[in-house]
Every structure is written in structure tokens, then in C-alpha cells.
Design a protein that fits this description.
The protein is built from 2 helices and 14 strands; from the N terminus they run βββαββββββββαβββ. By secondary structure, it is mainly beta. The protein has a 6-stranded mixed β-sheet with strand order 3-2-1-6-5-4. It has a 5-stranded mixed beta barrel with strand order 7-8-9-10-11. The longest helix has 9 residues, at 30-38. The two termini are 30 Å apart.
Length: 158
């Protein structure tokens, strides 16, 4: 068994809807979900791991590890709340459109990719307009700057 920082728990998965599973059983305890999501780290190889104390567990992520549940601008900064209850700044240069037209971005401090839930997508759309240089594309306006919204993630995953 591979060990990152100590004993390793097997088989944790985050599915495409953002639900967590342990050995095939959905985790429903809110504080456990919050702890696991807040303890999630991205590895240099692009994989994910949950690290709690001296224990670690690899995580199979079907889409992206986090969901953005709320979005807004505060003092010209794009801020969001994620499904682990934390408030994060969003990297506006990281936005992309994924499958089924879903909006994605990368959290500035944690470097983790996240998908906007419908309500947060609507909140972000208030700051989106067509790109003047490419009418079939869109930009998000943050203060005086416009950031292109890509079709698909960047090579670095965000």
C-alpha cells in the first residue's frame, strides 16, 4: 500500500455531481464532507489526496473536486463560496466552459478547479458579455479588465 504521510484509507471518490463516496457508499455526514473537502490537496502529478492529521487517502475525482455555490464581486475581486463552506477568490483568467455548458474556474489560493452550480453560474453571468474581438466567445468583466472564457480547461487543468 502506498503511504504519503502515514496510514492510507482506500477508495474515496468525488463523483461528477460533487458527492463523496467511501468504498462505494455515499458520505452524507455534513461535517465529514466539509472536513474531507477542506483537507483536499492536488498532487504534482495532477491527482488528489485528502490529508487529515497523519492520515491520507487518494481521491478519485470524476470531474472537479469542488463546486462553487455562490459568486460575486467584492471590492473588484471575484469571490465565491464553495461547497465546503469556504470563501475563495476565483482566478478570473481560469474560466472555461465545459460539458453541457457548465462554467468552471480555479480557486486562487487553493489552486483547485471548481464547477459553478446553476445559481452561481447565473450570478457570474451578470458579469459576462460577448467578446468584442470574437463574437462567438465571451469574457467576464472584473473592474476595468476583461478575461476571456475558454472552451475547455487549460493544459494545467485550470
Amino acid at each position: 500500500m502506498d503511504e504519503l504521510n502515514g496510514p492510507t484509507v482506500q477508495s474515496i471518490k468525488i463523483d461528477g455531481q460533487g458527492d463523496l463516496y467511501h468504498e462505494g457508499v455515499k458520505i452524507t455526514h455534513a461535517r465529514t464532507i466539509e472536513l474531507f473537502l477542506r483537507s483536499l490537496r492536488r498532487l504534482p502529478d495532477g491527482g488528489y489526496v485528502i490529508e487529515v492529521g497523519n492520515e491520507s487517502a487518494p481521491v478519485d475525482v470524476e470531474d472537479v473536486p469542488l463546486l462553487i455555490t455562490s459568486f460575486g464581486l467584492e471590492h473588484g475581486r471575484p469571490l465565491c463560496i464553495t461547497n465546503d463552506g469556504l470563501r475563495d477568490e476565483l482566478r478570473p483568467d481560469s474560466l472555461w466552459i465545459g460539458p453541457q455548458g457548465a462554467l468552471y474556474g480555479v480557486l486562487a489560493d487553493r489552486g483547485l478547479a471548481a464547477r459553478f452550480v446553476r445559481s452561481a453560474h447565473v450570478q457570474a453571468a451578470q458579469h459576462v458579455q460577448p467578446d468584442r474581438n470574437a463574437p462567438q466567445r465571451f469574457v467576464i468583466c472584473i473592474g476595468e479588465r476583461e478575461y476571456p472564457i475558454r472552451l475547455g480547461p487549460a493544459e494545467d487543468g485550470g
